[in-house]
Amino acid sequence: MKRVYFLSGCMLLAAAMAARAADDDWGVLKKSVASARQLPLSGTYLHQMSGLLETFRLYRAGDGDGVLERRESLDGPPREIVRTGGDVVGYAPDTKSLAAARLSAMRLFPALLPDEIDGIAQSYAVRRLTGDRIAQKDCQWFELKPRDTLRYGVRLCLENATQLPLKIMTVSPKSDVVEQYMFTDVEFGAPRNRAVLKPHYRLSYPMRTLATQVPESTAADIEVSGLPTGFRLVRAMKRSLPGQADKQVRQLIFSDGLVMLSLFVEPMMGDPRTPRVSSLHGVISTASGHQGDMQFTLVGDLPEQGMSAVARSLKISRP
User: Using one digit for the tens of pLDDT, what is the confidence trace for 57-82?
Assistant: First the structure.
């Protein structure tokens, strides 16, 4: 009997220690979110996805709402992305390059995790992995592993002193790397020459949403169910289609704390759309289909098989 009590006590102690370690790991990730957005630095990083490899130079100064950062492409279409606090603007010498800047601004490394990560634990487990060395700096690997097979996992190597993400990989349910960012060199501290924070190109485009948000009770006049565990409605609005100001589309944005999933719903016009799923850009997939007299489009950071499963389980109705 004493042996049984002893083993039970050991199991309880081990469980308590594991829970405490997980809490500590979540605390480290919270610190990394702040560093990824606000730590003054100068560095060069690589972005690799779908056979494409790009190089960017990043400069950042200030803190809090006063953060000012500028990144410029070192290859491919010439473009710059400037962030002032929460406002992001793309710059380029021509319209084609400006379109490339809009794509680059969709994911601004190293700030790939959301501002608030408290809700992530419902859909992801955190695990501390091995140590590493990247850009001549020691770092520790962490993994955010989804609790289902519908989402991507994320692995981050955080610099030991500042918790700045030096490398971030997005991995498929089969553990294949589908996208990654990595510093090749980085220095902490604001750049001495403030001129590097100013854009050089003439054409510009504000990246923040231009849609007019309406009260949620009006915009969310449809009910949606069947989404994977953890997804919650975070915003609802109505948007006008480009060149069709009189035609409005409902947009509902859902999030599990890490992934953003946009649902666009509009009245059926003509023949129903043929359901389809495809990769849009990097880790972003899209799916379309119809239900009743409504047609829908899903866009989000999900694998194609995950997006396909969501489209099949999605239920859209009017209250």
Answer: 999 999 777 899 999 999 999 999 99
- Indicate the pTM of the whole model: 0.84
For residue range 81-131, list pLDDT tens digits in order: 999 988 999 999 999 999 999 989 988 999 999 888 888 999 999 999 999
Residue type, 311: A
- Contacts of residue 302, defined as CB under 8 A and 6 or more positions apart, other chains included, come to 150, 151, 152, 259, 261, 285, 310
Cα within 13 Å of Cα(257), Cβ side: 16
Cβ burial of 84 (10 Å; 0-12, 13-18, 19+) is: middle
Report d(CA 256, CA 88) in Å as an integer. Answer: 24
Closest CA to 314 of 233, 231, 226: 226
Question: Which domains occur in the chain, in start order?
Answer: 2-206 (2.50.20.10), 216-317 (3.30.200.100)
Per-residue three-class SS string for the chain? CHHHHHHHHHHHHHHHHHHHHHHHHHHHHHHHHHHHHHCCEEEEEEEEECCEEEEEEEEEECCHHHCEEEEEECCCCCCEEEEECCEEEEEECCHHHHHHHHHHCCCCCCCCCCCCCHHHHHCEEEEEEEEEEECCEEEEEEEEEECCCCCCEEEEEEECCCCCEEEEEEECCCCCEEEEEEEEEEEECCCCCHHHHCCCCCEEEECCCCCCCCCHHHHCCCEEECCCCCCEEEEEEEEEECCEEEEEEEEEEEECCCCEEEEEEEECCCCCCCCEEEEEECCEEEEEEEECCEEEEEEECCCHHHHHHHHHHCEEECC
pLDDT surpasses 80 at 13: no
Q: Name the amino acid, one letter, at 46.
A: L
Cβ-count burial of 102 within 10 angstroms (0-12 exposed, 13-18 middle, 19+ buried)?
A: middle
